[in-house]
Fold Glucan endo-1,3-beta-D-glucosidase.
Amino acid sequence: MSSTLTLLLITIISAITTASATTIGVTYIPSSTQPPPEQVAATLKSLKITAVRLPLPSPSLIQAFFYTNISLFLSIPNNLLHNISTNRSAASRWLYTYVVPFYPRALITAISVGNNVNASSGDDVIGAVRNVHQSLTDLGIRKITVSTTFSFVDIMMTSFPPSSAEFEEPVNTQLLTPLLQFLTETNSSFFVNLFPYFVYKLRAEIPIGFALFENQPYSFRDDVITGVRYRNLFDMMVDAVIAALTVSGHADMPVVVTETGWPSGGLVNEGEGEGDAHPVYAGMYLNGLVSHLRSGGGTPLRKEGVAQAYVYEVFDTNTSFVNQAAGRLGTGLHWGFMHPNMSKKFNIDFSGGICVIDSMLVRMIFSLVIGMLMF
C-alpha cells in the first residue's frame, strides 16, 4: 500500500505544470537585418521562452506568433497617446488593427499605453489608458491588462535605502496618483523599465559584483533603516518600487519589469568605449537574473517577487528606440542576447523552472490519493 501511494503521489506531482515564480520573457524588435519573424518566433519557442514583449508591433509580426502559446505584450507608441486620449474611436481603431484580427490565436495578454512616460504627458497617458481599457471592455475582451510603462530612474525620488523610497514629483501627483488608482480598480499591474546597469553607472559606490548577481562575501548591501540585507542590485531596485507603491497606498499591486538587461558592447558619449558594457558582464547578469527569478525566492519586501520580467533584448537593434536613461548615458549599446544567425551570445537557459506547490495543495493531493486507494 505504501509503495502504491508513493507511486501515485509521484505521478500526480509530475503531472502538475512546472512553473517559475516569475514569468521570464524577452523583448523583440524586428529589423531588416534579422531573420523573418516566423523563424524568430519558432526559435524563441524552442528556447522555452513563454512571453515576448513587442514594443513596435505590426500585424505581420503579431501573426508570426499564432498558436505558439507565447504570451504577447504589446506597446502603443507615445506619439499616438494624445489622439487616443481625446478620441475613443482612435483607441478602437488601434485595437482593430493590432488586437481584434489576431486575438486569441495570438495570446495577447498586456498592452502598455506608451513607454517611459513622464509628468508632462500625464493627462494624455491617463486618458489613453482609460480609453484603451474601455474599448477592450466594449469588445468583450477582459483578459488583457492595460497599463503604461515608466523608467525607474525617472520616477524615483529616493530609492536607497529601499525602505525609504518614494516617487518623484511632479510625476507622482500629476500622473502616478490617478494612474495607480485606475490600476487598482482594474486589477492591473505596474510596469517599470529597470536597469541595474544604469544605476551602477550613476552610483560609484556600488560594486560590480553586486550588480551582476555575484555570490561573493562582499556582494551585499544593507538597508540601514530596516537592517534587511540585499544580495543584488536588482532586488534592491524592485523593493524601492514596492516601497514607493506602499507609501502611495498600493502595497499589493503586482510589478512587471518590462525591460532589464546588461549591454555586451557598443559605443557611448562621443565614441568612447564603454568598459562595463562587456560580453562577460552581460552573460553574468542575464544568467544571474534568470537563475534568481527561477529560484522563486522573490525579494525581501515581496516573497513572490515581480510578476514578470522581460530581458532587453533578443537582437542588437541599434535603433533610436532606446530608453531615456540610456539616452542620457549614451547610445549605441548592444543589448541583444542573440546573433542575427539565431545563435546565442550567452549560454542562458530559459527553460528551467521550479514547481510551485503550497502546503494546502500538498494536503489536497494526499486526500485525493487516499480517496483513490479506498476504492
Remarks:
- The CA atoms of residues 189 and 254 lie 5 Å apart.
- Residues 3-20, 269-273, 319-330, 353-366 have pLDDT under 50 and may be disordered.
- The domain at 17-356 is CATH 3.20.20.80 (TIM Barrel).
